[in-house]
Structure formats: C-alpha cells, structure tokens
C-alpha cells in the first residue's frame, strides 16, 4: 500500500503534536541521545588533543565512558588544555581546579556537561 504525500505529512504532523515543546519552540532531545552526543564530542576532543594517537583511539573505543585520563597519559598541562577546549566547545563557565580534578573519566566529563546544560 502506498501512502500519498499528503497522508504521510499528516501522519508526521500528528506524531509531532505529542512531542513536548519548550518555550523557545525547540523540541528537546532525550537525555540519552544528548549524553551520547556529548560523550562522542568529548572523545573527539581527546583524540584531537592527542594528535589522533592510534593507541588512544583504541583505548577510547574499548572504554567509551570509563576511559580514565591517567590511562590516556594526560598530565596537568594536558588537563588544562582539555578543560579550556571543553569550555569553548560546550560554552561552559570557568571550571575550578578542584571541580575539574573530580572528573576522572570520559563519562564523568559527559555527566558534568549534561548537568551544566540543564
């Protein structure tokens, strides 16, 4: 059975009516999809900061959310550069040293960013 374009558009329009709409007319993403996007972006930033090192890439693939910065070979300077990049990428407020020191894994960073965006 083929649907006409009008029927298909009517189905899409009626389905969209059930989605929540924010005051700015944006439809929110699910928190799971948002977290996945944040985690992907964080891993991408790590890869860029490490010069696309194949070992880092393999470790991140094997441990997507549990990858620890110490295992990635990050020193204090790397962490400062990483935090600056995160602030720019996600429009975050300045992070205190103490606050950033509590973030040990990619998952910790993703959760922190997700919480900051709420």
UniProtKB/TrEMBL annotation:
<feature type="signal peptide">
    <location>
        <begin position="1"/>
        <end position="17"/>
    </location>
</feature>
<dbReference type="Pfam" id="PF00550">
    <property type="entry name" value="PP-binding"/>
</dbReference>
<feature type="domain" description="Carrier">
    <location>
        <begin position="33"/>
        <end position="117"/>
    </location>
</feature>
<keyword id="KW-0732">Signal</keyword>
<dbReference type="InterPro" id="IPR009081">
    <property type="entry name" value="PP-bd_ACP"/>
</dbReference>
<dbReference type="InterPro" id="IPR036736">
    <property type="entry name" value="ACP-like_sf"/>
</dbReference>
<protein>
    <submittedName>
        <fullName>Plastid acyl carrier protein</fullName>
    </submittedName>
</protein>
């Amino acid at each position: 059975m083929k649907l006409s374009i009008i029927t298909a558009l009517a189905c899409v329009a009626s389905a969209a009516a059930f989605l929540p709409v924010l005051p700015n007319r944006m439809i929110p993403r699910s928190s799971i999809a948002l977290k996945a996007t944040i985690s992907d972006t964080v891993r991408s930033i790590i890869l860029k900061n490490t010069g696309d090192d194949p070992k880092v890439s393999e470790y991140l693939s094997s441990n997507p959310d549990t990858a620890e910065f110490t295992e990635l070979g990050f020193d204090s300077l790397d962490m400062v550069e990483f935090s600056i990049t995160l602030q720019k990428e996600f429009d975050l407020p300045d992070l205190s040293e103490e606050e950033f020191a509590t973030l040990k894994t990619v998952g910790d960073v993703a959760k922190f960013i997700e919480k900051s965006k709420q």
